[in-house]
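Troubleshooting entry. The earlier prediction with adenosine-5'-diphosphate gave an output that would not parse, so I re-checked the input for stray whitespace and re-submitted. Clean input:
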Amino acid sequence: MIRVEDLWRTYQMGDHALHALKAVDEVIESGEHVAIMGPSGSGKSTFLNVLGCLDSPTRGTYYLDGRDVAGLPDGELAEIRLRQIGFIFQSFHLVARLTAMQNVELPMIFAGVPAAERRARAARALEAVGLSDWSGHLSTELSGGQKQRVAIARATIMGPSLLLADEPTGNLDTHSGAQVLALLDELHRAGRTLIVVTHDPAVARRADRVLVMRDGEIVKRVAGASVTDLASLFDFGEPTP
Amino acid sequence: MKPVDLAGFALRAILTNRRRSGLSLVGVVIGVVAVVTLTAIGEGALRYVTDQFRSLGSSLVIVAPGRNETTGGLPAAFGGVPNDLTFEDALAIQRQVRAVKTAVPIALSSAPVSQQERRRQSPIIGATAALARLQRYEIAYGSFLPETEIDRGGAVAVLGHTVARELFGNASPLGETVRVGGWRMRVIGVIAERGTQFGMQVDETVFVPTATAMRMANKSSLSRIILELNPRSDPTAAIERVKEVLVDRHDEEDFTCISQDAVIESLGSILHILTLVVAGIASISLAVAGIGIMNVMLVSVSERTAEVGLLKAVGASRRQVLLVFLVEAALLSGAGGLLGLFVGEAIVHVGRLLYPAVDAQTPLWAIGAVLGLSFATGVVFGVLPAWRAAGLDPVAALRSR
Ligand SMILES: Nc1ncnc2c1ncn2[C@@H]1O[C@H](COP(=O)(O)OP(=O)(O)O)[C@@H](O)[C@H]1O
Ligand SMILES: [Mg+2]
């Protein structure tokens, strides 16, 4: 379970402070599927990065499975990222000089998993995302959709309970996007907490809940099923200037 | 994270950027080659010089007229003209110093040597029969100077290889007559080809009995007395005793007495220090190479910023990121060290083929030091880039590119 209270992330820009997150309070249950939406610059990625222990809040508390992780030292945060969290990025972030297999093996290297076991597990993970035949290919030889599936295999290889995806279909065509979403759904059904940042109402509709952000705050919480279009979602009931 | 995996990861990164990695290697290679070849030359020179001394025989002591001719003490005029070194001195030493097995009186000069119309200038060494044994001369024809009393002259000569060939061509000189400084001498032997020994060109030299050489050159003093010590006798004690005998005869210490061991030792330590200094200077070039590695690693880190962000996102700690880049730098410089060792040894090998006299060989200590040093160079100069990588903010790093 995720619980954040009065969460701030402030960037000091010279003499004025930019609040990427402003007093965010939120609870996300284990196994929940949550979508985060909002205009560009509203703080979605910042929120996701803090939840992923990749960024530290300037102020506030963050309980992950009951543990206060906001002020942990780097070594322990790295350990949490390694074992409890899986990240999926819009731009895939595969290491270009490594093969698909080697990319999936990366987290296990930092975990000190022996080579033979690493290879066996990576092979199974690649099979699960339908890329058995591509395991020996360099990531530069893969299509966008294939890259993202390798990234999903990598994000899940250590068996994390929390999956964080920042616009995972943002760089993909409809068909590859659908494959990726299907995989994410499958992972969620297997019991993982899934948090997806997206601009696509169709993606948000799959979620249990949708958090809408604006200027660093969560301004709306709606059921995924109720999402129709962006215009109504981003209508914050104010007079437009 | 296992060391093997670290090395594998680093190796892949190095191999991806072959040209850049290669260029940074060159610096290390040059530094290591410098150390390897220079120490090889130094050690070779050391061995060359010691071997030359050793070839003179085991325990030799040399007595020369004049005080301290090697260390440049008071000039002769200051303490008066030194007494001549005479046959009597040599005989007295041989009789009174038990450690001395043989005393060989030596007279050095130079004279024209001719045979019919062929003529050349040659160094003339006046010596006795024992010199051939002490210097390990190999006799090609005939024999060396005859065994007689040491002060006995004779109109006989032994020729060095080159002198014999120049004066007689392929004909045998044995029993023929040569003119040495106007004296007619009968050739009784030829020394086998020998090459330069210690700056003394045996092949060019004519050997005659000491007494004859002194009369030819009109000299009253011996140039040297070479003393062969009995095996297992102590050179230092022997020298003391020789000094006593000579001071007793001359009433002052107007001669110089040095043991060959002492010369070898001091020359050896001078050469060794020289080698160390040269190696030290050469290893400074490794520091320069280290800066090259640091540059390459800094570029690598800035190019791979997004990768660093990703590594952190999948669970790498600061420490692990630091290690990844440190190992990469150490592998680069270590590989440069190994490559440099091979190139350097190849050069040393070629040098040995070209100049077999100087038996150049890189000493083991230098190989160990240079490998350790090149590895350490990578670690030391890799710290800054690795530290920079480890300190990257993962969020900003992932956003870069
Ligand atoms: N490193 C940074 N320095 C300064 N401002 C930043 C930094 N990172 C993000 N921001 C600002 O924080 C706000 C939220 O950014 P972000 O979380 O990336 O938004 P979103 O993902 O919703 O587009 C934006 O105004 C952005 O400009
Ligand atoms: Mg974003």
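This one parsed fine. Chain B has two domains: 3-52+265-399, 100-228.
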